[in-house]
Every structure is written in C-alpha cells, then in structure tokens.
Design brief:
Helix 1 packs antiparallel against helix 2 (17-33) and helix 6 (89-101) runs antiparallel to helix 7. It contains 11 helices and no strands. The chain is mainly α and 192 residues long. The longest helix is centred in the first third of the chain and has 17 residues, at 17-33.
Length: 192
C-alpha cells in the first residue's frame, strides 16, 4: 500500500486531486498502523492542505495526536471534524474516545450517545459505552453495550476480534456467569 500510494503522491500532477487525497489517506493509515505516527501526521497534514474539510483525516489526526499524548491538539482536531460535518457518527465517537482517555466519563458518554443517535448501526460508540459503564462500575450495562457492539461490528481481521470477546468474558465473570465467560475466552483464543 505504501509503495503504491507513494508513487501516486510522487506523481501527483498526473493524477486527479481525489486520487491523491485518497492515496494520502491510505498511506497515512498504513503508516499509523505501523506505528510511524510522524509520517502518518505528515500525510494527513498534506491531505488537510489539499482538502481542509476532510473530516476523516481530522478524526485520524485526533487519534494519532492522542497517542502522542498531545491531548489539546487531539481535542481541537476532533472538534474540527465535528464542525466540518456534525452528522457523521465517527467524529463524535472519536471525541468520546478522547474524553474517555482523558478520564471525563460524563463527556465521553454524551459524545458516544450522540454518535449512536446519528447512526445506530455504527459499532464503535457501543464499545465506548461499554468501557464507560465499566468505569462507572455498571457491569450489567457494560455487558449490554459490548453485546450491541459485537452485533453491529463488521467482521474484522483474524486476530483483531479477541479483545471484545475477552472483555465480554471478564464482564460475565463479574456478573457471576463463569460458563458464559469461559465460552467467550475460548472463542477469543480460537480467533486469535
């Protein structure tokens, strides 16, 4: 992906702007997944220079900035994404994630609820709500939300699915349901 996108970016004069924007986004995402956050931010900066209203790039920038512990910048990016288009659930989910990371559970919950209201089929805010409920000590609500998450989540890559099932298993243990917990742990192991 990086090589292919780099070729498009290098020869950007030969490609339509939307193709270059897509190449910057894909390469930025690839760099981010490899832990090359500075390279990812450079691509997303270039993308935002080409298209300042690209809310997905702003969302990705917010998450990368948070991973660098640059929370003020991360919040600014997430809020910019919402200002660009407040109707996209992903931007609200990113903001919820940032609030959760920052320990502001009430704000995280409000943003997750806003995301769900905008798109009830979008899975990530349900997982955020599960984490928030766990942080508030409401394990039953947390289990309900992780179940909603797993019902809505598109099938991920093998090896990526284990965490939600492990999380659900831990919640089931907290709710004194050891056999259900065990089946979730075994499923997580099988998928990993």
């Amino acid at each position: 992906i990086i090589r292919h996108c780099s070729e498009i970016i290098k020869n950007k004069d030969k490609h339509p702007a939307p193709t270059v924007v897509q190449a910057l986004m894909r390469r930025g995402d690839a760099y981010s997944r490899l832990g090359k956050r500075d390279e990812a931010l450079a691509d997303l900066d270039a993308l935002c220079e080409m298209n300042a209203k690209h809310y997905k790039a702003r969302c990705m920038r917010a998450l990368i900035l948070a991973s660098l512990n640059r929370m003020e910048d991360a919040f600014a990016e997430a809020k910019q994404a919402i200002a660009i288009d407040a109707k996209h659930a992903a931007a609200h989910a990113v903001l919820s994630n940032l609030f959760l990371f920052d320990g502001k559970l009430d704000d995280a919950l409000a943003s997750a609820k806003a995301a769900i209201k905008l798109d009830p089929s979008f899975a990530p805010p349900y997982y955020l709500r599960a984490l928030i409920a766990q942080g508030q000590g409401d394990f039953k609500e947390s289990l309900t939300m992780v179940n909603f998450y797993l019902e809505r989540r598109p099938l991920p890559d093998i090896g990526e699915l284990d965490h939600p099932y492990q999380f659900r298993g831990l919640l089931l243990l907290r709710l004194n349901r050891p056999m259900d917990a065990l089946s979730n742990f075994l499923l997580a192991r099988k998928l990993n």
